[in-house]
Amino acid sequence: MISTRKAALLSGAAALAFVIWLVIWTSAQRPGPEREIVALPAASEAILTGGNDPAQPPLELLPGALIDINTAPAEELTLLPGIGEALANAIVTYRVENGAFKSLEQLMEVPGIGVGRFDAVKDKICLGEGLP
Q1: Residue 27 φ/ψ, nearest 5 degrees
Q2: Contact (Cβ atoms closer than 8 angstroms) between residue 35 and residue 62
């Protein structure tokens, strides 16, 4: 026969296990954060997607959107495939030191951007006013 104390411990453990299971199950049932399109200020030509928080940086480019390599800040340039923070800063530095890019191919003059990286981004960049 089970003592009263053991029975109380078993029922308490069962109740605790149920509460843990309930918390896990209900958290799995909640939908994830809603995502919506967030526009950048009018000065930016790129169309980006991000979360609901306008202060949150955009997460990715929308299909068909272009980034102006002559005006985009480093944060926006990091949205290009294969362009991390260091390369984005290198692009901005090159632009400051050498002036605006006159062709898309001139991007390969930035240290660290070769043919492979250029091929990955060439369809996602432009030289102003949304024109490639």
Answers
A1: -70, -30
A2: no
Walk across the sheet containing 60-61 and list its strands.
Answer: 36-37, 48-50, 60-61
The contacts of residue 58 (CB under 8 Å, 6+ apart) are: 38, 40, 48, 49, 50, 76, 79
Which two tokens mark 125? Answer: 């960049």
* Nearest residue to 69 via CA among 129, 125, 117, 122: 125
pLDDT, block means (10 residues), the chain with 132 residues? 71 75 68 48 44 56 85 93 94 95 95 94 84 49
Look up the pTM and report it: 0.55
Give one DSSP letter per residue of the chain, joined into a string. ---HHHHHHHHHHHHHHHHHHHHHHHHHHS-----EE-PPPTT----EEE-S-TTSPP-EEPTT--EETTT--HHHHTTSTT--HHHHHHHHHHHHHH-S-SSGGGGGGSTT--HHHHHHHGGGEESSTT--
